[in-house]
Amino acid sequence: MRSVRARAALGATLVVAVALVVAGLAVLAVLRGNLTDRAGLEAEVAAREAAGQLALGVPYAELELGDEETHPVQVTDEAGRVVAVSKDLEAISGTGTSRVVPGPSAPVPSPGDDDDDDGGDPAGGEVSSDAPDFGNGTATVDGETADYRFATVEATTKKDVTLTVHAGAPLAAEQQAVDTVRTSMLTGLPVMLLVVAGVTWLVTRRALRPVEGIRRELAAITASEDLGRRVPEPDSRDEIARLARTTNETLTVLEGSVDRQRRFVADASHELRSPIASLRTQLEVGAAHPELLDVPGAVADTVRLQVLAADLLLLARLDAGERPGRTAVDLGALVREEVSQRAADRIPPEVSVEGTGPLDVAGSRGQLARVVGNLLDNAQRHAGRSVGVSVRAERGDVLVEVSDDGAGVPEAQRERIFERFVRLDDARGRDEGGAGLGLAIARDVAARHGGTLTVGTAPDGGARFTLRLPGRTAAQEPGRTADDG
């Protein structure tokens, strides 16, 4: 069954069926037990009445056994011989002996026995006060056989003769009541199960109706590729409403991601178009007029293409979720190395390392070097006379600050400059090679290393970029623990 409604209806029906069957069996057991106990009580009363007469010395032939048709009675002596039975009793079972005719050797008390003066107590006969024994059996009375509940009671006569009285009570009422209840249950069970299945089907169908609406809308979105559409959200506050809201949030994120990818492709195409067109023009001119070939310009355009392609490749890897390595990187040494490569630039950076604490972080040395290099390039591009770099440890983190004395970044633009292919107006006029990817790459790399990259105002009024990365502890180093020192 592939339908949720069908599975829910079937499951509910099976659960209710099992519950009803168990409950019905319990009801039948309780009903049978109560009625059987009632019949046993009737049988005990009849047995004690007969035992009381025997204890008083009433002769067997004169015993009054009550309603002999509904309460058959059988009396046996200590040897198991039948000494008395109720009238019209033709057959019996379940009492220890099936005989219904008194034996010829059975002692028969007579009225004269009461006058014997042997020093005994004239009222010495008694009925046992112990709880009677119960059992089920059958008896045939006046040609009709039925099931009975038998009670067994012992009585002692004045002559110290122990007799056992077996008296029965019919189980016909118990059997009839149990049969009636069983028939009613067997008749009502299918009807009840049909009602449960139908109600479950309807309730489940109504509950899952919004899910079908969500599915249809998602299918339409998939067919139309229109990520601006949203699935309907029901007014309820249940799981389906939360599913619809989560689906719409996912569609919103997906739409934003697709839009960013489209802008990224468009901007990349635009940025690649200019150096490629310039390089093609120079090569075509050089082919027609070799003496006019601008080799330095062609090399510069080629380098620009190479740098842009490398930036785009790195962004693609970052977007694909590539995780950096977890090797130890000394940021102090890394910054000094990057600064030393710019010693001959127009504005050489000045580096300072503050404090004596560890400056190690966990990550990719190549990606972190790209971050530091991009920050230095950006500072040199906008600086007037000086660029400063500082590295220090602070509360378990390592901070790298790159400052310049340029015009700075307006507060309203401080988040926008980290977007891809974004360059401020003054940067567009002064930057001949940048594509607006350096700061975007730097922030993405910092985020994937568990750090942050922010921009503020330097003491000289320019821009100050702060790279904060979590420091590497001894417990993080491969093959070491915190106790290794």
Brief overview, please?
With 485 residues, this protein is an alpha+beta fold. It is built from eight helices and 14 strands.
Estimate nothing, just give the exact number of structural domains. Answer: 3
Q: How large is the radius of gyration?
A: 52 Å
Largest sheet: 7 strands, antiparallel
Order of helices and strands: HEEEEEEEHHHEHEEHEEHHEE
Average pLDDT across residues?
82
Helix content bin: 40-55%
Question: What is the terminal separation in angstroms?
Answer: 63 Å
Keywords for this entry:
485 residues; alpha+beta; Helix Hairpins; Heat Shock Protein 90; seven-stranded antiparallel beta sheet; five-stranded mixed beta sheet; rod-shaped
Description:
- The protein folds into three domains: 4-178; 239-316, Helix Hairpins (Orthogonal Bundle), CATH 1.10.287; 324-484, Histidine kinase-like ATPase, C-terminal domain (Heat Shock Protein 90), CATH 3.30.565.
- The protein is built from eight helices and 14 strands.
- The protein has helices at residues 4-55, 172-224, 239-288, 295-319, 331-340, 365-382, 425-430, 438-448; strands at 73-76, 82-85, 89-93, 126-127, 133-141, 144-156, 162-170, 327-330, 350-353, 360-363, 387-394, 397-404, 452-457, 463-470.
- The strands form three sheets. Strands 1, 2, 3, 4, 5, 6 and 7 form a seven-stranded antiparallel beta sheet that branches. A five-stranded mixed beta sheet has the order 9-11-12-14-13.
- Strand 11 (387-394) and strand 12 form a beta hairpin.
- The chain is rod-shaped.
